[in-house]
Design a protein that fits this description.
With 469 residues, the chain is an alpha/beta fold. 27% of the residues lie in helices and 25% in strands. The N and C termini lie far apart (53 Å).
């Protein structure tokens, strides 16, 4: 089946051009002016942008979590979460496998493959979160590329649950570097956070507003500096996840200025909310509990600057939705029991375009770069994903810069009972979305089918490095 997008403005990370785009089957066949239709279905793209499908490299779908003795999971599974992603213009995402205690990495990966089986509507891949770093598990890291996984994640926070010590972090960085993998790190000083949290609870400070007070920005900055130093000694590339503040941003900027192999992302929500939102009345602040937490207006300005100047390479979501009425409420009497996470997978491109491009903070090409091209390049998906060029997958967003959409829990596709951006009217939204040549979204209506999405084995980040020389 052929589809010809006629007369649109094609947008890449390097610029824009008025062109037609021809799709043949699942791939882009040609890009250029006045392409012949040759029996193709013609889509009128006049006045619209042709964008590469968005790539969200940080999601948590159907993620299990134990809170106060209760077993819960994030509200979106691989069907509802991917439908929401598609309706917001995202055509590929990378989800985090969480290694259960006692499990091998292969066993954990199989669990996540089962979660996605028969449900996926867009393409997806996996990162491997190492939560139980036994020696035999560390030896398994070298096998991950054989299974299509070329990124691992470790956390410097969540003491007693997911946190690793410096020796383990260094060991993971070194093993991953040798295998040609990219290590992703959650940077907060979990030991000090644990002390501050226990002190807050002992003092009876249990409201949601104490969540950011026990996780100050200085501890994110310190952990970021430490992770960068350990990665340098290990000779391994490093990717900082969900960076929130100027204290951490300065560390990344300094590392990149000395040409260290360090990259960082922020998430869409960190541009718009502050710690003050966790003090909303009637427990509404619980909706905004995530880690690292929301910071200050000054930190927001720093993040915008980091995206504009290239210090921040990617804008993702850390999509981890929990229903307010049935899940966030578990922590009504104690903020430490509020499930950490927010919904954002559907609203990432909408909010970044509205506030970033329309707001004059970033260019249209930079918008494409941080939401599609850079994620594809860093995570082994380019040139198949992340740009619009012959031979690549026909993941296409037909973007109407004048289309308005009101963001609301009443109309969004995420399976969660609130929307962070409730009532926000954005200008600029998808008119249609295609995944590998198949239309999956028409306006705000999902028209795809479960099971059509595919797992994406990814290329290594870099050739294996012999760190013993």
């Amino acid at each position: 089946m052929k589809t010809l997008f006629r007369g649109g403005t094609l947008v890449t990370a390097t610029g824009t051009v008025r062109a037609d785009l021809l799709v043949d089957g699942e791939r882009i066949a040609a890009v250029g002016p006045h392409l012949p239709s040759d029996g193709a279905t013609v889509v009128d793209a006049a006045g619209l942008y042709l964008l590469p499908g968005g790539i969200d490299v940080h999601t948590h779908l159907d993620m299990p979590l134990e809170v106060a003795g209760q077993e819960i999971a994030t509200a979106d599974d691989f069907y509802s979460g991917q439908v929401a992603a598609a309706c917001g213009g995202t055509t590929t995402h990378l989800d985090f496998v969480i290694q259960p205690k006692g499990a091998k990495l292969r066993e954990a990966l199989d669990l996540w493959h089962a979660k996605a089986a028969g449900k996926a509507v867009i393409d997806y891949g996996f990162h491997m979160t190492i939560a139980d770093p036994r020696p035999e598990v560390l030896r398994e890291i070298a096998q991950l590329p054989e299974w299509g996984v070329t990124t691992v994640k470790v956390l410097m926070a969540y003491k007693g649950r997911l946190q690793v010590d410096d020796a383990t972090l260094f060991a993971v960085l070194r093993e991953a570097g040798r295998a040609g993998l990219l290590t992703m790190v959650h940077c907060e000083n979990g030991d000090v956070i644990d002390i501050l949290t226990r002190e807050a609870v002992a003092a009876g400070n249990l409201a949601p507003r104490y969540h950011p007070l026990t996780r100050p920005a200085a501890l994110e900055g310190e952990a970021t500096s430490r992770a960068i130093a350990l990665a340098a000694v290990a000779g391994a590339p490093l990717y900082i996840v969900h960076l929130t503040c100027d204290a951490a941003l300065r560390q990344v900027r300094a590392a990149r200025e000395r040409r260290a192999r360090v990259w960082a992302e922020t998430c869409i929500q960190y541009f718009f909310f502050t710690a003050a939102d966790l003090d909303r009345p009637n427990f509404e602040g619980a909706k905004f509990v995530c880690s690292p937490p929301f910071r200050t207006r000054d930190d927001q300005e720093a993040l915008w600057g980091g995206v504009a100047d290239g210090t921040l390479s990617v804008v993702s979501t850390d999509h981890a939705p929990f229903n307010f009425a049935t899940q966030k409420v578990i922590g009504r009497a104690d903020f430490t029991r509020i499930p950490n996470g927010v919904p954002a997978i559907e609203d990432r491109l909408l909010m970044l375009y509205h506030a970033g491009v329309n707001g004059g903070r970033i260019s249209l090409s930079r918008f494409v770069e941080v939401t599609a091209t850079a994620p594809a390049r860093l995570f082994g998906l380019l040139p198949r994903k992340g740009t619009l060029a012959p031979g690549g997958d026909a993941d296409i967003v037909l973007w109407d810069p004048h289309r308005e959409r009101t963001l609301s829990a009443r109309t969004h596709h995420m399976r969660v009972d609130y929307n962070l951006f409730e009532g926000t009217v954005v200008r600029g939204a998808p008119a249609g979305v295609w995944v590998r040549g198949r239309q999956v979204v028409d306006g705000e209506r999902f028209v795809g089918r479960p099971g059509a999405g595919a797992f994406l084995p990814r290329a290594r980040f870099a050739p294996p490095v012999d760190l013993l020389e």
